[in-house]
Amino acid sequence: MENMKCFDRFTLCLPLIILKSHPAMKLLQALLPLLLIFSGCSTPEVYDVLIRNGNIADGSGTAIFKGDIGIMSDSIAAIGDLRKASGKTEIDAEGLTVAPGFINMLSWSVESLIEDGRSLGDISQGVTLEVLGEGDSWGPWSESMKQEMKASQGDIKYDIEWTTLGEYLEYLEKRGVSTNIASFVGTSTLRIHVVGYDDRPPTAAETDSMKLLVRQAMEEGAIGVSSALEYIPASFASTDELAELCTVAKEYDGMYISHIRNEDETFLESIDDFLKIPAATGIRAEIYHLKQVGRTNWHKLDGAIAKIDSARAAGLQITADMYNYPASSTGIGILMPEWVQEEGFEKWVSRLKDPVVRKVVGPEIIKTIMRKQGTPEKVLLIGFNTDSLKYLQGKTLAEIAAIRGKSPEETVMDLVIDDNSNVDGVFFSMSEDNLRKQIAQPWMMFGSDGKSMAPEGVFLKSATHPRAYGNFARLLGKYVRDEQVITVEEAVRRLTSLPASTMKIERRGALKEGYYADIVVFDPEKIQDHSTFENPHQLSTGMSHVFVNGVQVLRDGEHTGATPGRVVRGPGYLK
Questions:
Q1: What kind and span of H or E run contains 369?
Q2: Sheet hosting strand 284-287, strand order edge to edge
Q3: Mean pLDDT comparison of 4-18, 73-87, 378-392, highest-scoring range
Q4: Among candidates 85, 76, 53, which has minimal Cα distance to 66?
Q5: What are residue 396's DSSP bridge partners?
Q6: Closest CA to 304 of 327, 270, 276
Q7: Dist. CA 348–CA 308, nearest whole Å
């Protein structure tokens, strides 16, 4: 009777349970085991999918073991020695690693999934859950916010058919996506919704309004509250204001996740500021894309690790995530002082056209570049909305300044005006050695901080950071296989069960019977990222098969076109 387990035991055996409880049916009690077998209360001989002979890394971090996995419908029905069983679809995973689907803790696929629900860039690396919402979430939106977002759309155009965050997630699911999707509700979104772009504290009534919006989002299934405190208007929020919003999320067992206020000169002070919120509220809390910007700040990583370890030892539930590259990417507005960007994009552009303002802002831009990157050659421009400017993509700020015959600081201001956007850039300012040290931390998770794209169509109109195509494959190839910074088992744990348990997501993040069948099969000797800063639109390789909710999305490295992704909701969801 080895491996004989009941699939949906309650449903199949209910009539027998009723009989067993009847006083006139004592004879059946003795015959019950035999009757259970004939009534179907055993492992089915034929699974929908049977993955054979895999090296199973179950997500727990324990040693890999050899075994088979049987899938029925959307769930894992059995794990172990299933040689006597068969599958309607069978996969021979001999020599391959079988693991839970990977969780992208920081995805910016909010628009790319509307354009192309296949999520090809991430599916090709084994990502089965995209977690959205770094500071800005795609809901709740007011009518004026919808108009603003519509006007700011770049290469990807779409109608805005939702208002709340829950409605957006359901819109994606209905439209069809290959990955599962989840989201935090962003404090920037909340502030714009209620306060606008003003640099001032909210009134008591405005604070109550933001808390009501948090409550609504949590009941719709948000994972928690997020902030991006280096950007306006989130930077205008005090720590006490953020703690007030987190108190509401805590009521729903949600978490707080933050792009901290500063990642260079006041990096350690910003971690202290971040830690005040979980200390005050007891909420689980995570630091987005932990990094140290600028060579003069690289030595601060040891201090940051010490602060996080100390907080964890004191009982706070603190984690972090990262991407596996020594360069960041964001809009070039990060090079400018906050005050020039206050009150929204139109006011920002208007100020940049003022000669008096330009004389003040210009020196601040060059000072920031020298402090963070060291030189304009280390700023790469990758994303323009205006077709006539796209020829500048892939060129450094120094090169563009030379082409235009302007100084680097004038060029930065002019590009925002000319493109009518916060032009995307890549900033080379981080330490490769620090990346390895961060990866080694047991509380470190991983997020691409990028879109999930395809090397085709509209996506080719803009360049991108290679993390969009290679973050997870790079971890398993470069840092696990080649450099052995951590083991395969530990890497899988950090990509699966750790984020799932941190976000309190049920039935995902592990290979266990009864869990949803989000499963990846990859060759640990061949998995590899290929995307580069010079040629970013290249898919990773080495991922053989990917299942999402029991449906095969990647077969022999090729996308099947299936879109079985679902909304994954946080613990506060009111069904």
A1: helix 355-372
A2: 185-186, 224-228, 255-259, 284-287, 318-322, 444-446
A3: 73-87
A4: 53
A5: 380
A6: 270
A7: 36
Please give the torsion angle defined by the CA atoms of residues 264, 270, 272 and 274, in that order, rounded to the nearest 10 degrees: -140
Neighbouring CB atoms inside 10 A of 432's CB total: 9
Q: Whole-angstrom Cα distance, residue 133 to residue 256?
A: 12
Nearest partner of 206 among 227, 185, 190, judged by Cα? 190
pLDDT tens digits, one per residue of 414-453: 999 999 999 999 999 999 999 999 999 999 999 999 999 9
* Calculated CA dihedral for residues 42, 45, 48, 50, nearest 10 degrees: 110
CA dist., res. 141 & res. 131, Å (int): 19
The conformation of residue 391, written as its DSSP 8-state character, comes to: G
Q: Are 450 and 464 in contact (CB under 8 A)?
A: yes
Four-residue CA torsion sign, 11, 12, 14, 17:
negative
pLDDT in tens, 150-169: 999 999 999 999 999 999 99
Alpha-carbon dihedral sign for residues 136, 139, 140, 144: positive
CB atoms within 10 A of CB 363: 10
User: Would you give the end-to-end CA distance of the chain in angstroms?
Assistant: 39
Q: The dihedral of CA 429, 433, 436, 441: what is its sign?
A: negative
- Torsion (CA) 335, 339, 345, 348 in degrees, nearest 10: -80
pTM score of the predicted model: 0.91
Q: If you write DSSP's letter for every residue of 113-136 in order, what string do you get?
A: HHH-TT-HHHHTTTEEEEEE-SS-
